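For the sake of transparency, this paper describes our internal protein records without simplification. Such a record has a labelled line for the sequence and another for the backbone structure tokens. Nothing more is needed to write down the fold, since each code stands for a local backbone conformation. For reference, a complete record is included directly beneath this paragraph.
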Amino acid sequence: MLTVSIPKMWSARILMYLERSFVFGSAFTNRNWEGEIRDAGNSVRILQIGAVTVSDYTGTLAAAEGLSDEALDLVVDQRKAFNFVVDDVDARQSILRIVDEGSKNAARAISDVRDRYAASFHSAIDVANTVGSDATPIIIGFGAGETKPYDAFLDLTQKLDESDVPTTDRRIVLPPWFIRALKTQFGDRASSLGDKITEAGMAGDIDGVTVYQSNNVANVAGAKYKIMAGLPVITWADQIVKTETYRPEAKFGTGVKGLHVYGAKLTHPKAMAVGTFSKGQLSK
């Protein structure tokens, strides 16, 4: 019999919705080394292969070199819990609807927290790939002395170009105000940017760079936004390691509680760029 007290049904549904609403995850993370996570504190070993030397060929090959490898440890050090109650009266309705809506709500709350965690990796990006700073943020707008949004976008992609980052599969995550400014600058130019934001935050593309929208772009009191661009080189690992149902003492219902653990590692700091931008005059 299908009931709201089946833990596996909740964990599977919450995980499904977690993947749909993880904007920075969709943009910048990969799960190439996820492994099997049993609890917080577990670590995932990431192997990286060194560069290959290219030499002139004069009829004889140079001696074969051994490829050097380096191991990085991704520590699963983030732990977030959820705990809610499904009222017995509600549970008499459609079981699947209750599980679906409850899972959506839990996933949204978890995703908001881990999205901000992924956004915090702006501080791990190579310092040579930065535009602006906390001391001198770039002011985005159309007022005197301000930088137009598309020019700021080009500054970021130039940093990627100068670091020999491949042009394919580049992404950028922008706050809503920056997308508005871009649409204002583009005017009548053919662009569907921001016309339809997907559940994963995808808003379109500019010059082959996939654009995502998020309210979780790191900032300081509505200024100094840390806008990240580049490849999906933040290795991510997560799991809902515990899900339990129980009967709470003070209510007639079924309680659902769980533990979500995760961790991440920026494996290629030069494959991303970050700009520090503040809002200026956003209308022409």
About this structure: The first strand starts at residue 29 and ends at 30. The mean pLDDT is 81.
